[in-house]
## 1
Amino acid sequence: MTADKSGDMKTTDRKLDRKLILIVQQKLGNDLRWVLPFAYRDDGETMKETANKALVNSCGNGLESIILGNAPCGYFKYKIPKTADGVKMFFFKACYKGGNVKLSDPSIKDYKWVTHDELSEYMKPKYYKKINQFLFE
């Protein structure tokens, strides 16, 4: 494929024999990190609604997907440095139906469609280890 030859990682027309995973490069504190799209849950919002919101807020309305199930497939918790606060991130699986990513959140600087094997090149080790538990090739 042309995308494989050119190294274009912004298209789903690459590695057609493999499952692709959407990652975004987001400003978190003072750092830019590659993460799965996420959003903070608002009061009264279900976790599945938050998962849908995460995709729309991160990728715009042009990306069509289906969130699988009503319960998360995994979670990651961490402490915020220099505070007593902690954060839990819950993950949902989604299937890509079509459309394109149009970054809409100013804290998101870039995105890529990567294979499972490529994920570890972008993620921090602790984060990658946790999400690798529920991502299957």
Note: The chain is about 20% helix and 30% strand.
## 2
Amino acid sequence: MLYFWLSLAFVAGMMMPLQAGVNSTLALHGNGAVWASGISFLIGTLTLLGVVLAMRYEVPLPAQLKQAPWWAWTGGFMGALFVATGAFLAPRIGAATMVALLVAGQLIMSVILDHLGWATFPQHDINLGRILGVLCLLVGVVLIRMN
């Protein structure tokens, strides 16, 4: 089962540059990255609604949702920023540079989150291997950016 989850993460990661390119194309035809991102979120919302209906998931009760900390509600903002930024940057810096920087930012934040054990992540200390991995990725960003 672990290999399935690892493969799922890999395939989802492959969708990042594709999504940015698709949204960027929509932005060219629809008054910019913000509108394209909104349309993308609308389609995503409808898709998730279809999944919820098909899987017959229970609707969360307001009392349950009130128990969530305030920051648990910020995921939509972060997603909107991510999607709009990708749609805006894709034609300006290219897929490889954009994704290299996105992944570098994701990895650095991931190491911090793991170290702190925050937001439901299991705690994993920062160690030499993780620091070297981040440094290698940052070197990769520089190499990718070089023409």
Note: Helices lie at 2-29, 33-55, 62-66, 75-93, 95-116, 128-145.
## 3
Amino acid sequence: MKAIIHQQIEGLDGLSYSDIDEPIVKSNQVKVQLKAAGMNRRDIAVTYRHGASDEPLVLGSDGAGVITEVGDSVDQWQVGDEVVINPGLGWKNISEAPPEGFEILGLPDDGTFAEYIVMDQDHVESKPAHLSWHEAGVLPLAALTAYRVLFTRGKVKKGDTVMLPGIGSGVLTYALKFAKAIGARVIVTSRSQSKLEKAKSLGAALAIDTNSDWNEVLKGEQVDLLVESIGRATFNKSLKIIRKGGTIVTFGSTTEDTVEIDIRHFFYGQFNLLGSTMGSAEEFRSMLAFVGQHNVKPEIDHMFNLEDYLEAFTYLKDTKNFGKIGFDIS
């Protein structure tokens, strides 16, 4: 089969579009012919984390397709079922943090940037009927991350004001749509005017320049929940804009990870600071049900062919996307 693999050289230079053996199904597994696969910034990071001396690795965490083969003991699925991949391995139930041994598909296990993948039967779920293959293929990792950030960790509810600095990523576009679906009010920031306009078209109540004085521009606003994913460049601005007793949930950083804060301001403000990453299989199923109930569809920026992998990775690395990008494998 054809696949995007990483080997021998650190970074994007180690990527290639190659012929490799199709995976073999074991007793409790299903084989999925992938129709589409989504990209995440993690895929770029993996090209640096995957050692040059390690075995060749198929990248990718997101995917959707049709089951073409089932193992002997499989009782949940049959050939022809349309499924989405749950990329979180070893985290079954909602908990405060992932259990020991939790992994994400695409390192160390082979991922979804290929024509076929083999998964344990409990790591696939039925594809939401209202989604196209492209939409289903780019859903899993980012939508699950956004769902846990908002609902499990952030406890967002109708009427809350949610702020999303740096709108444009897959996770934040899902967060915008999920928050709007339950009746929250959403404020976004970006340095890109076109991304601000797109966010407003999706229902953002306010869209402001990331480099502006947030306290001045948002005077009178009460931010209940802020989703922080930029890091040092915005973290203290975020801490100064949320209401007293408000919450910041962070799931990553696109600038430097190390942040210094005024601890006196923090404890006087009675703020809540929470970390989050991915989510459990239980939350994945809840997210799929939520997406179906509210007819939420991913915001797709661009779909590439597998052979155009370098263009796709460069596009993502340069943060050109608004919403999700991925691969059309069908």
Note: The chain has two domains: 2-139+298-328, 144-275.
